[in-house]
Amino acid sequence: MFNPTRSPVRKSVIAGNWKMYKTQTEAAEFLQGFLPLLEETPGDREVVLCVPFTDLEILSRSLHGSSVRLGAQNVHWEPAGAYTGEISAPMLTELAVRYVIIGHSERRQYFGETDETVNKRIRATQSAGLVPILCVGETKQQRDRGETESLICQQIEAGLIGVDQGNLVIAYEPIWAIGTGDTCECNEANRVIGLIRSRLNNPNVPIQYGGSVKPDNIDEIMSQPEIDGALVGGASLQPESFARIVNYQAI
Ligand code: PGA
Known about the structure:
It contains ten helices and eight strands. With 251 residues, it is α/β, with parallel strands linked by helices. The chain has one domain (13-246): Aldolase class I (TIM Barrel, Alpha-Beta Barrel), CATH 3.20.20.70. The protein has an eight-stranded parallel beta barrel with strand order 1-2-3-4-5-6-7-8, surrounded by five helices. α3 links the parallel β3 (69-72) and β4. α1 packs across α10 (239-246). The longest helix has 13 residues, at 115-127. The chain starts with 11 loop residues before the first strand and ends in a 5-residue tail after the last helix. 2-phosphoglycolic acid (PGA) is lined by residues 17, 173, 178-179, 210-213, 231-235.
């Protein structure tokens, strides 16, 4: 249904984040179940699958000619070099990858990601013609201490130094809502996303919500005027549940 309060210019982006799940065989099985469920999907939304590096090639081949876009979950900031275990942006573009998740809270928490390395990765991503999905969000403790706003503004400001905001997606993912089933109240997510938008110099950057997005809350989430999409972890692993999310109907 047409939502009169959402800017018609901002694209809705629904992205699955598979994290470290699915072998190539499992990825191919997923697509067999998923693609037929997209036949009625409205064209006003971009559907993205952000998958492990090892799944990119098979999905790249299988998604050729489909409207589903391919995404990665990280990228190094140098185009090539002696960085054992890393993957560069040109390696991704050759596989028809279009989006890259950058600064997910799991990378910040477990792999030493900082606002500075996030910024370097975003700029390398854009230089290669890819679209970064910058993740920001606060912990439960930071929220309880009243630090949500200042923390988010800091992550946005430091992450976006020298970044082209015409080629960018942001995901607001409160860390306490990720993988917990404890979704952020829709109006609170809408408020924080409005705050993020007020810090940007391009009003058309799509801003997603992420954190326990499910088939039974996506319609309400997408009915919020500031929320332009979703970054979906656990519920993107099953074809039926992710298809229901992609086929959301704003109330
Ligand atoms: P979740 O994960 O949907 O399983 O909460 C979201 C994310 O980490 O991007």
